[in-house]
Amino acid sequence: MTFTRFIINKEVIFDADANILFSVEDESIKVSLNAPTGRCLKLLLVSNGKVISREEFLAEVWNARGVVVSQNTFYQNISLLRKSLEQAGLSKDIIVTVRQRGFVLTSNIEVSPCSNNEGNSEDGTIKERIGFDEVINVVESNAVVHGKTFFGKQYVLNIPMWVLLLLIVMAAINIILLLFNSFV
After folding, report:
1. How many CB atoms lie within 10 A of CB 147?
2. Which residue has the higher pLDDT, 103 or 149?
3. H helices of the chain, where?
4. For residue 168, is it left (φ>0), alpha (ψ between -120 and 50) or beta?
């Protein structure tokens, strides 16, 4: 399932189809993004902590659509994105510049994808309509990730698939050795 809406720090909803940021607390705050700025934000949200280089941004946001832009245009879009996130109620320090490598979302950011129908009902506020009990982080396909909130604190299990397979193989070998030793 491809998500097009994201909840950022339980404070802001980003609708990637409409390129709009909504404040969860104050429904009157809506910040519109231009299409390239919205695609930059979506790329950062789905990267799950991976540093995105300028070249990756240019390739994904512009070149994939047959558009060639200058570095200045790219940096203007990142600046506009920071300002827009701040207007929506998030810290403008949410996007971190990693010198000579690229950009990444700050490590203490919580991103939860939500279905397109969440937050659309007219009953109650946006915050009441969106459940914050469970968080699923969007990550690369080679990791097992699941998050739960217990007593107001989030716990996230983020295990690369190869580590999980290694643990299973080690457990199987130990069981075989245990059974072999019991017969000898």
Report:
1. 15
2. 103
3. 35-46, 54-57, 71-88, 126-129, 161-183
4. alpha
